[in-house]
Task: inverse folding
């Protein structure tokens, strides 16, 4: 009975105050649309940055004279270095096959295989690449490496540093933008709700004067906020869904570029938007009312 | 029922709403509160429902010090005090019926109770034909009657009426006063603030007069006709007023 009453009260308020309710709904719709476009972009950017960082490795080239016993020993030594997550061995044959596939003519001309056996050393975190390199080429060895069977350790110090810096910057910027945009959305929705409540503050005052408790007044407002938030978010989701199916999916099929970066799944996006829309709108209504309940 | 002891209310900027007012009203009494505009009548009403807090002094209602009622308990206290507001204070988004029903809904009244009580009180106040009108579709006098209906639908033990006849023609005013009189006879204590001197004279009830926030007259009218029936009362009210000399 109570729930039914509060629900009817909420619907009555929306019917009788159509303009402010519509304004709140439009605000939720627009902010959720912006978030709905922005979140996948940020996710894709972060995904791209991470995949670039994931390619940051240390290559360890073996001497051509190295035996398989040497290789086993070196592999163990490499795994013992701090911050090494894994070590991948690429034999000279495998490397040759891979490379000659990419550039058959050049390798045909060469005739022999100039490539050494190689270890790809994968760091636990791309940021640790430089410290791994330093550990493999200690200054005490006088320009040498930790094992005589190692010919050399790849040296892309500057490139690595640049990649790390740029991807760091991209990730941080994306995170900051997400925070700012979320904040802006919350403030915008809360403000619209505040305005619509302000127009009804006399009504709230009268309710209190005839003996209504705070929660008796508040529930219909919270329910109204939930309905408005859910409706706005659902409309935004519908628009985004249509756009995705009609525009993005055909593009992604034709251009690998768009398909490539990993981004947030559409269902996850739906959940996030719906949750955010309802939460902000319902909480905003409930909290903004406090001021007017002090009668 | 009501006890004011040295109650003052100072609004900001030096406005005095009430100045050291001391008076009491017993259970089942019918009291008029008169005084020039700005003398503090509405201030008394607003203090009585804890819409305002007194600057000093104590107010007791039914033996209870209003200062002791916590913010949380205030709604429950207010349900025992019916108020006819000077500015009606109707809910603009509700019909006449729903405005009156709201006073029952806040107390958790059942649907059955509402369907039973609301039409009754609306008939009594002569609003049966306006059930589904919104306040902005009513005349001032009609809105006032809705306010009265809402104040009394709960049958509160104390009824405060701030200018309940301010917007009504003499004939309707008499009807309203008759209604209040009848309510009073059922045992409800009534405090009526008014400017209507003729009405006060005819009713012959106790009169409290305020001037600049001070109680300047407290007169238990000599011709206190407690045992009149409502019909006799109405007849007397309709007869041409005979003003005692000196008033
Ligand atoms: N909210 C307020 N802020 C400042 N002053 C106020 C406020 N409310 C009332 N007053 C002042 O308090 C005094 C008493 O006001 P009150 O409303 O009690 O008068 P009243 O007797 O009801 O007048 P009326 O017959 O016109 O309704 C007036 O001088 C008024 O200006
Ligand atoms: Mg007044």
Result:
């Amino acid at each position: 009975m109570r729930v039914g009453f509060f629900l009817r009260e909420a619907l009555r308020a929306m019917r009788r105050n159509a303009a402010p309710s519509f304004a709140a709904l439009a605000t939720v719709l627009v902010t959720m649309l912006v978030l709905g476009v922005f979140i996948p972009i940020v996710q894709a950017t972060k995904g791209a940055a991470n995949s670039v960082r994931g390619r940051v490795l240390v290559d360890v080239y073996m001497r051509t004279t190295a035996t398989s016993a040497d290789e086993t020993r070196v592999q163990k030594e490499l795994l013992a270095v701090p911050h090494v997550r894994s070590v991948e061995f690429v034999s000279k044959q495998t490397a040759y096959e891979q490379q000659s596939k990419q550039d058959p003519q050049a390798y045909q001309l060469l005739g022999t295989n100039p490539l050494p056996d190689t270890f790809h050393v994968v760091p636990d975190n791309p940021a640790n690449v430089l410290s791994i390199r330093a550990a493999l080429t200690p200054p005490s060895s006088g320009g040498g490496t930790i094992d005589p069977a190692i010919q050399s350790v790849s040296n892309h110090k500057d490139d690595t540093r640049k990649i790390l810096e740029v991807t760091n910057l991209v990730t941080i910027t994306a995170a900051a933008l997400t925070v700012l945009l979320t904040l802006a959305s919350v403030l915008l929705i809360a403000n619209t709700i505040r305005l619509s409540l302000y127009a009804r503050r006399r009504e709230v005052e009268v309710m209190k004067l005839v003996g209504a408790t705070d929660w008796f007044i508040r529930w219909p407002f919270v329910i109204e906020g939930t309905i408005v938030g859910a409706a706005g978010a659902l409309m935004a989701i519908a628009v985004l869904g249509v756009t995705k199916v009609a525009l993005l999916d055909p593009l992604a099929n034709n251009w690998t570029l768009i398909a490539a970066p990993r981004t947030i799944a559409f269902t996850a996006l739906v959940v996030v938007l719906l949750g955010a829309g309802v939460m902000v709108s319902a909480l905003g209504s409930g909290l903004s009312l406090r001021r007017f309940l002090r009668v | 029922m009501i006890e004011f002891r040295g109650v003052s209310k100072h609004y900001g900027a030096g406005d005095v709403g009430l100045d050291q007012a001391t008076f009491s009203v017993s259970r089942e009494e019918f009291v008029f509160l008169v005084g020039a505009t700005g003398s503090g009548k509405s201030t008394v009403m607003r203090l009585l429902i804890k819409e305002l807090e007194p600057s000093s002094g104590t107010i007791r209602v039914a033996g209870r010090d209003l200062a002791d009622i916590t913010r949380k308990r205030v709604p429950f206290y207010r349900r025992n005090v019916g108020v006819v507001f000077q500015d009606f204070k109707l809910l603009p988004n509700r019909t006449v019926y729903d405005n009156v029903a709201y006073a029952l809904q806040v107390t958790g009244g059942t649907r059955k109770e509402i369907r039973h009580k609301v039409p009754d009180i609306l008939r009594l106040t002569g609003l049966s034909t306006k059930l589904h009108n919104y306040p902005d579709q009513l005349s001032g006098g009609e809105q006032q009657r809705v306010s009265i209906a809402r104040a009394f639908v709960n049958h509160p033990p104390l009824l405060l009426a701030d200018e309940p006849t301010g917007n009504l023609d003499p004939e309707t005013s008499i009807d309203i006063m008759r209604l209040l009189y009848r309510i009073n006879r059922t045992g409800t204590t009534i405090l009526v603030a008014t400017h209507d001197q003729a009405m006060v004279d005819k009713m012959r009830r106790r009169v409290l007069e305020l001037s600049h926030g001070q109680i300047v007259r407290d007169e238990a009218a000599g011709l206190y006709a407690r045992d009149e029936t409502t019909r006799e009362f109405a007849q007397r009210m309709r007869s041409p007023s005979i003003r005692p000399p000196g008033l």
